Amino acid sequence: MSTSPELSNKQRFEYFTRTIPSDHYQVKAMVEIIKMFGWSYVSIVYEESNYGIKAFEELEVLLGKNNICIAVKEKLVKDSGVASEGAYDSIIQHLQTKPRARGVIIFGSDQEVAEMMRAVRRCNATGIFSWIGSDGWSARDLVSIGNELEVEGTLSVQPQANPVKGFKEYFLNLTVENNKRNPWFVAGTTPVTELERGSNKLLRTSFVFAFIPAYLPPVPRARPCRELELQSGERTERANRHSLVTEIE
């Protein structure tokens, strides 16, 4: 993922520029939360991917430096379709063997954590743990809907996101005619053009939807969007909240 601390290595990634902070700062914020609560014994569940593994490695180091012990370390299989219910149940049961470690850091993605929360319910562990969530799942409807009691009280770490003034208007007014300098924009809209799906307004809206998280309902393509929908549609507004430019104070 683009938040991986590994990408901060300028010798390997000389031309990489971030538009979102490294997970290094997310990990530091999590450790500060643990220190604030005075916890000295926590568990970590992390996704079996670069995103989760690199974060876990940094967590291990920072927790050790602050004399905070790790009770349980568990991996989440990246593809939720691969792991069985029993695999998720096993993770929760392992956490339950360390009842003094009620604080649990989860560094993962929405699909995997949603399955884990269902396992919490199956194992009658609702309300036992205090979750600290990463940005990969903690603000996602896919996790919370149907698991409201299981995620209640979760503390999450999110990059500070602010709308870029004028960006929405600028982006919605881009067309293949006035933005030829950007080859990726042209390539991204060409397939729609070939199928003759509506006007330039529809092309612009379709391109914005590429930035919306995958758990949102698919965009209807039965007709071109009306002007009102282009300006104030629910999905457009939700996309605006996922700003491409973020910062951590």
Automatic annotation (TrEMBL):
Give the Gene3D superfamilies listed for this entry: 3.40.50.2300
* Places the protein is found: Membrane
Sorted alphabetically, the Gene Ontology cellular component annotations on this record are:
membrane
Q: What is this protein called?
A: Receptor ligand binding region domain-containing protein
Location of region: Disordered: 230-249
What InterPro entries would the database entry show? ANF_lig-bd_rcpt, GPCR_3, mGluR, Peripla_BP_I
Pfam family for this entry, one: ANF_receptor
Organism of derivation? Apolygus lucorum (Small green plant bug)
**Residue ranges occupied by any Receptor ligand binding region domain in the UniProt entry:** 2-185
What are the GO MF terms of this UniProt record? G protein-coupled receptor activity
Q: Where is the composition biased (Basic and acidic residues)?
A: 230-240
Membrane topology summary: Multi-pass membrane protein
The highest taxon in the source lineage is Eukaryota
Q: Which UniProt keywords apply?
A: Glycoprotein, Membrane, Receptor, Transmembrane, Transmembrane helix
